[in-house]
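INFO batch 0412 | record 1 of 1 | parsing
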Amino acid sequence: MAMNTGRMPPIGSTRWLWLIQIGGLSLAMFVLYSVSSGTPASQSWGFDTDPSNAPPRNFEVGTLFDGRTAGEWQVLATDKAKSPPHVLGQLQGKGAEHAYKVVLVAGTEAADLDLSVSFLALEGKADMGGGLIWRAADDRHYYLTRANPLEQNIRIYRVVKGVRQMLKNVDRIIDVKQWHTLRVVSQGCRIQVFYDEAPVFDLCDRTFASGRIGLWTKSDAVTYFDDLRLEVLK
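INFO prediction complete | emitting tokens
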């Protein structure tokens, strides 16, 4: 008996054709196959019903290269919240130059998406601000866009094996006394980034096809995040 399989179906397909040859007789058999992640079409996190002093449910904190936990990610009540009473804060105010504080969200596997978050930069002498992660395979492989008030710029990176590779940079005024919003629309290879609803990047990159979303800070930056929203695009 010889068996020959058809090609893997495209994203969104739900069936896979197997062609089985027995003697001179060919039999076609459809096998149910789903490459859909089952991610809800729309999700949002305001953190207001999450317990304080711990990461929200399904938020998975990464690790640094030396194995330590990548930051101190906690829900906390604050009068600085954009949508009171809670925010998600990265509160660890120390770290080496390449200490990337990453938290990924389970149940957010997506290829094409519209993703946004608000952030408030609080502290940082070596680094400041924060960013959005998408199409993350893990805490070493992902796309990242981040805003840095110390450098007064916004950048987009791909991170491969934990090493950042900058795709684009733009200078922008980033006021540390107010909340700002980062938004990503990613469809196929096209990536659009918006800062406070103004477009800043429009480019094509094919490094990562799908993955989870997350949040990011670096080095000694202390940052609050609020109103994280994900819409999976069909």
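INFO post-check: The chain is about 0% helix and 55% strand.
INFO record closed
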